[in-house]
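Run log, item B.
One chain of 183 residues. Sequence copied directly from the ordering sheet:
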Amino acid sequence: MSDASDTGGALRTKKAPAGPLFRNRSASADDAAPTLYFATLHARAVEGDGDALNALATAYFSGHSGVAPDKEKAVYYWRMAADRGHPSAQCSLGLCLFKGEGVEYDDDEALRLFRLAADQGDAKAEVCLGRVYELGDGVAEDAAAALEWYERAAAKGDETAKAAIAKNPSWAAAAGGFNVYEV
């Protein structure tokens, strides 16, 4: 059922049990098999499915679904999904590039990916852009741009963006004289 050759040996070879109780459950360290979820996910990723590539990268990044954490492998799969235009993968890959996790630090490429994802409406990418403009991290500090990105994410219900706006009294005033995002 598993092919450990293309996963760096992270998969175990015992067949995963079938049935509703075993779908989408995370494997523990004691499990002798990858989950049916992971096997299905891997098969879809091999076919180039962007959602599957993104989910597979997430599994490798955090070490769930029966695989050991492997940030380099996560970056590999996020890059494949990002190249297919997957906004969540673009944002996640951007974060890895921005932090130098699993890949060499590259703030220019990270910002490019954040913008691509944000232009597709990804709230997490909008928060990332708000943060970099707020702090001047990789770009010139720009409070107006930060507020604009935070407001876009907050309008989608993002709690991190709402909290960022709430902590800045001048932004609250710009939002109409009171803080509509106070949490």
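Observations after the first pass:
- The longest helix spans residues 50-62.
- Residues 121-183 form one domain.
Flagged for discussion on Thursday.
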